[in-house]
Amino acid sequence: MTFFYKNITGLTVCVVLLSLLLHSPIFSQQKNIITSVLVINSINVFEKSKLGNDVLIAFQDAAIELKKEADLNVKKFEDEELELTKKREIVTKKIFNDLAIDFDKRVQKTRNLYDLKDNQLRSNLESWKKKFIELSGRVIQPIMLKYGAFIVLDSSQIDLFFDNRIDITEQVIFELNDLYKNDPKYLEFIIGK
Hints:
Structural class: mainly alpha
Distance between the termini: 82 Å
Number of strands: 2
Strand content: under 5%
């Protein structure tokens, strides 16, 4: 009988110690830690949040419209080039060369215009991303207060080794989705429509 009680007591002590060990902060993935530094992956926040996705869709829509417009001009120039080649037989060499030079200048001017529009569209996306990050601060700051943090490092910008418990990426995505769901005007704020 003494053997039975010793084993139960030993087993109880082992279970209690194991339980304490497994529920200690070392093994816990709960977010109830206090830290002065948090980590976020801003690329994931932008790409996985509903607002970020809508910004990307607005960019893609604008890029598609720009491509359609450029394709129409390409077709127009192809047609004009065919007409120009037909004129080769009926106009003088000097007149044809003048027409060809004028045509080449207009083609180059149009190419430059679309390069400029493409660069402007890409600049818009970068501007929209900056506004998105500024808006993200509205949900990041309360999360920082919750953790007692003073710094948020972006793991997409630098190589970091960190404890996953201080990664707030998913929490920021959740909060941004909630913010955007409650007030869709944030897309207009970012893309300026």
